[in-house]
Amino acid sequence: MGMNLFKTTAAIAGLALMGTGMATAGEESALTINGDLTIPTSASAPAHLENIDMVTSGWIYRTKETQALQMDDFDNPSFVFVDVALDLWDKVDGSEGKACSSCHENGPEEFAGLTASMPRINAEGQLETTTELVNECRTERMGAEPWKYSKGKMAAMTSLIGLQSRGSVVNVAIDGAAAPYWEKGKELYYTRVGQLDMSCSNCHEDNYDVMIRADHLSQGQINGFPTYRLKNAKMNTTHARFKGCMKNIRAKPFGQGSDEFKALELYVASRGNGLTVETPSVRN
Amino acid sequence: MASGVKPRVKVPKKAAAGEAITIKTLISHKMESGQRKDKEGNVIPRSIINRFTCAFNGKSVVDITMEPAISTNPYFQFDATVPEAGEFVFTWYDDDGSVYDTKKSVAIG
User: Average pLDDT of chain A?
Assistant: First the structure.
């Protein structure tokens, strides 16, 4: 009798365990791209983060439909823009008669892993972004006009470069010469601005995973940038997103490519140290 | 007229005879509706893909009329039964008279 009772209880406990296990699997389905590249969507927070234990990709806060778009490169609309960038890669421009491919003979694959460590300190001790690297090539080596910081061609090209790092673990340097920029970025992150008197941290640290009216707040990680947004059907760069956030809180945005946004980019990227590059991602 | 137009198609390379396969198609196109105005207030002329067809070994699979409300980079996904080995031909018709096409072969096995 006692034995039977034990068995029944054990069976029920087993069922209950199975039930919760399945529910978790449904909510936290992993991000697998093209059925072969699995990207972890969370990681232990880097040591410098005081208020968060786990860092999470923005992908997990999106709806199933939006998530699915990123799981197949054909369904992912970003690849229309990656194709545009591939055409630009071979297009001769400027007074030197060169295209990207004239110097980078091994193709965009030369940049594998680059985006995972950007922005970084250059030889002159200055903070530089991928966008600035592209424009430096255009003005210094191609003799061409620089592209606008976040416009179509630049966003497409940085998406193509970012794609080469997809699957690499984000690891931006924040020590040494980068430290003052990082401190500045951190200060910007925690400073309340605008008519609504909000800082980045109010939403993306204190209230992530909470609905802000109809939108599900993420941690504001930039491991998937440039990202295709369904709301405007184009690639969105980090600085354009910062600008959008600042407008939302009724603040006057800094310029795209400004020292402020570059420092903020470094700081926000460092908050995702340990996450995996998803570029080009799909968000709403 | 329209620039940067590039068709993309995803078709399995192999199928069993009589199997229904999923076909995905996308064409990059700005799909200007003809309803918008530029900074000076002039209407931006309509420029869309107005028809999409798919044929298998010369037999029509789908034939779609497209309207101005369809958003940029139109995407179509549909299932098609493959009775024998052959070739899918996908054709897009632009307002400006351009015709874009792509062919994909399917083997039986």
Answer: 87
> Does B15 map to a domain?
yes
Within-domain flag for B25:
yes
In a domain, B65, yes or no: yes
Whole-angstrom Cα distance, residue B43 to residue A36? 47
Is A80's CB within 8 Å of B24's CB?
Answer: no
Count the domains in chain B. 1
Contact call for residues A249 and A194 (beta carbons, < 8 A): yes
Which residues in B lie closer than 8 A to residue A80 (C-beta atoms)? 6, 8, 26, 28, 73
Each residue of A88-116: pLDDT tens digit? 999 999 899 989 999 999 989 999 999 99
Q: Sort out which chain A residues have CB atoms less than 8 A from B5's CB and list them.
A: none
> Amino acid identity, residue B77?
Q
Question: What 3-state class would DSSP assign to A87?
Answer: helix
Which residue of A lies nearest to B71 if distances are taken between CA atoms? A233
Q: Is A245 a catalytic residue?
A: yes
Q: In this complex, which of B10, B71, B73 lies closest to A74 when CB atoms are compared?
A: B10
Query: Which among A68, A63, A9 has a CA at the least distance from the CA of A35?
Result: A68
Residues B6, A83: C-beta atoms closer than 8 Å: yes
Report residue A74 as tokens.
Answer: 């054909």
Owning domain of residue B40: 6-108
Q: Tokens standing for B36?
A: 């918008």
Per-residue pLDDT band for A19 (boundaries 50, 70, 90) equals very low
B positions 29-68 inside 8 Å of A (CB): none
On chain B, the residues whose CB falls within 8 A of the CB of A65 are none
> How far is B102 from A5, CA to CA, in rounded Å?
67
Q: Which residues of chain B have pLDDT under 50?
A: 1
- The pLDDT, as a whole number, for residue A25 is 31
**B52-76 pLDDT, tens per residue?**
999 999 999 999 999 999 988 899 9
Which top CATH class is A29-283? Answer: mainly alpha
- Please tell me if residue B72 touches chain A, with a CB cutoff of 8 Å: yes
